[in-house]
Write a structure and sequence with these properties.
There is one protein chain. The chain has one domain. The chain is mostly helical. α2 packs across α4 and α3 packs across α4. The protein contains four helices and no strands.
Length: 83
């Protein structure tokens, strides 16, 4: 059985950028696109955890944003000197 975090740690910066762009676009429509990255990652999570799709969708969004934040932090984007 794989680790859910591995799904998101293995994403390229380009995949994270694309996914966040999709999330921003989907927010305007009020629903997560059927053929988008979030659903793809949610389905991968379901294979690992067996959780319901609604939970997996929310967790996939959170994990993408978390991974983006961790990478930004590593790059020093949120340093005090960057105010």
């Amino acid at each position: 059985m794989g680790n859910v975090r591995d799904i998101f740690k293995s994403l390229t910066n380009g995949e994270i950028h694309e996914t966040i762009s999709q999330m921003k676009s989907d927010e305007v429509e009020g629903m997560i696109r059927l053929n988008g990255n979030i659903r793809k990652y949610a389905n991968q999570m379901i294979e690992i955890t067996g959780e319901p799709i609604t939970s997996a969708l929310v967790m996939a969004q959170m994990n993408v944003l978390q991974e983006a934040a961790y990478r930004a932090h590593e790059l020093g984007i949120f340093n005090e000197t960057n105010k």
